[in-house]
UniProtKB/TrEMBL annotation:
<dbReference type="Pfam" id="PF02629">
    <property type="entry name" value="CoA_binding"/>
</dbReference>
<dbReference type="InterPro" id="IPR016102">
    <property type="entry name" value="Succinyl-CoA_synth-like"/>
</dbReference>
<dbReference type="GO" id="GO:0009361">
    <property type="term" value="C:succinate-CoA ligase complex (ADP-forming)"/>
</dbReference>
<feature type="binding site">
    <location>
        <position position="159"/>
    </location>
    <ligand>
        <name>substrate</name>
    </ligand>
</feature>
<feature type="binding site">
    <location>
        <position position="43"/>
    </location>
    <ligand>
        <name>CoA</name>
    </ligand>
</feature>
<dbReference type="InterPro" id="IPR005811">
    <property type="entry name" value="SUCC_ACL_C"/>
</dbReference>
<dbReference type="Pfam" id="PF00549">
    <property type="entry name" value="Ligase_CoA"/>
</dbReference>
<feature type="domain" description="CoA-binding">
    <location>
        <begin position="4"/>
        <end position="100"/>
    </location>
</feature>
<dbReference type="GO" id="GO:0000166">
    <property type="term" value="F:nucleotide binding"/>
</dbReference>
<comment type="function">
    <text>Succinyl-CoA synthetase functions in the citric acid cycle (TCA), coupling the hydrolysis of succinyl-CoA to the synthesis of either ATP or GTP and thus represents the only step of substrate-level phosphorylation in the TCA. The alpha subunit of the enzyme binds the substrates coenzyme A and phosphate, while succinate binding and nucleotide specificity is provided by the beta subunit.</text>
</comment>
<comment type="similarity">
    <text>Belongs to the succinate/malate CoA ligase alpha subunit family.</text>
</comment>
<dbReference type="InterPro" id="IPR017440">
    <property type="entry name" value="Cit_synth/succinyl-CoA_lig_AS"/>
</dbReference>
<keyword id="KW-0816">Tricarboxylic acid cycle</keyword>
<protein>
    <recommendedName>
        <fullName>Succinate--CoA ligase [ADP-forming] subunit alpha</fullName>
        <ecNumber>6.2.1.5</ecNumber>
    </recommendedName>
</protein>
<dbReference type="GO" id="GO:0006099">
    <property type="term" value="P:tricarboxylic acid cycle"/>
</dbReference>
<feature type="binding site">
    <location>
        <begin position="17"/>
        <end position="20"/>
    </location>
    <ligand>
        <name>CoA</name>
    </ligand>
</feature>
<feature type="binding site">
    <location>
        <begin position="96"/>
        <end position="98"/>
    </location>
    <ligand>
        <name>CoA</name>
    </ligand>
</feature>
Amino acid sequence: MSVLVNKDSKIIVQGFTGSEGTFHAEQMIEYGTNVVGGVTPGKGGQEHLGKPVFNTVEEAVQKVGADTTIIFVPPAFAADAIMEAASAGIKVIITITEGIPVADMVKVYDYIKHMDCRLVGPNCPGVITPGEAKVGIMPGFVFKKGNVGIVSKSGTLTYEAADQVVRQGLGITTAIGIGGDPIIGTTTKEAVELLINDPETTCLVMIGEIGGQLEADAAQWYKASGSKKPIVGFIAGETAPAGRTMGHAGAIVGGSDDTAQAKKRIMRECGIHVVDSPAEIGLKVKQVLG
């Protein structure tokens, strides 16, 4: 099993012919991901990387049955790209673009909330189900198939956690990079819930950072769920000064519960195995799995 993406996903790339879209689409195809085409308005009918280019997402859905998209559209146009994908019936919308204005994301959030689709991101590394589909910008060679699910706000820490899990002789079911912006589609809680409900995932790694309530919400849901699947947690930004954005636009301490210390306390109270350094993630996963 896997969540969100697998070998059967029919994936298109929005912003396909641009430099970012080309570079990462090439790597996704090389990995074995089922990329069925791409969208660049005005370039429909052409071929790029051996795949058809369409003018609209709707056309890609009709002609190649696309059900998943990855968005590399510049920030000013990315919100429209997300809404276009949702209205065309795409089920999984993975948005890599960084720097989408918050006001635009408010509109997107409102537009898609009653639609039958799932948005991952924006400003995220994507989603990977090792050996099946890499829909993102992560280095595929780091990820090996296994039974550990990863949910992370940080791109680089997603790869770091995966590498450590693999070095312990274990592997990954699906890794979900949810993104670090103030307004994102899939929350930590929702991503954790997907993996808790996945029969193949026997343990989770949850990586958060300062700012917002996402990790606390996920921890409280986990405790209430009564799940016996262990979660190993880490919060980045322990030494960050209050009131300063660190790295991600959403990583800013607004109140007493936004600090790394407060989040770690809440997670521990909810039964999550919290580590104080990212270097301890792999070892802790090995320990909790016995």
